[in-house]
Amino acid sequence: MSRPQLNIKFDGEGEKELLEAVKARAQLERISLKEFVLDALKNRLRVPLSTQTSPVLTKGELGELKRRIDDNQIGLMGEIRKDRDQIATLAAAIALIESRLDVLDPPTLAVGEDSQARQSRHGWEEDCEPGNKAWDTWGSDAIEFLDTVRWGDADG
Questions:
Q1: What are 57-80's pLDDT values in tens digits?
Q2: Which residues, other chains included, contact 33 with Cβ-Cβ below 8 Å and sequence gap of 6+?
Q3: Which of 48, 51, 58, 80 suits 99 as a labelling partner, its CA being 20 to 30 A distant?
Q4: CA 134 to chain centre
Q5: 19-46 pLDDT tens trace
Q6: What torsion, rounded to 10 degrees, do the Cα atoms 40, 44, 45, 50 define?
Q7: Are 82 and 156 in contact (CB under 8 A)?
Q8: pTM
Q9: Could you give the 3-state DSSP secondary structure of residue 131?
């Protein structure tokens, strides 16, 4: 009469560590390696096939997975905070630019503008040529503006 036999080779990646863990667990439970493996097989067969599709995680693996998810969430929140800070800085810079543009380039009048408005605008354009006082004021304001705008840290 022949005895049934099951031979398993543990030569894959991580399988030797698995065998050592199985041996250690069998010793803790004070049963033989054979009994431990048979119990594991029986338990696996008792689980309905529909629930066997996803692997079972140990508490350690589940804890590691939760820690990694938390780390990723913290990292993403930090990136979002940085993005919001950069958006706020850019919005402030745009508002400052727009306010300076309104002062430097008043809106043009409609088609029917009068000659007095045309003359006053023409005089303003001449004052803003390089070397004139208005140009020097605008240039120093532009440099001051660029000095106050911060584009973020060097690391992102």
A1: 788 888 888 999 998 999 899 899
A2: 22, 23, 26
A3: 80
A4: 46
A5: 889 999 999 999 999 999 999 989 888 8
A6: 180
A7: yes
A8: 0.31
A9: coil
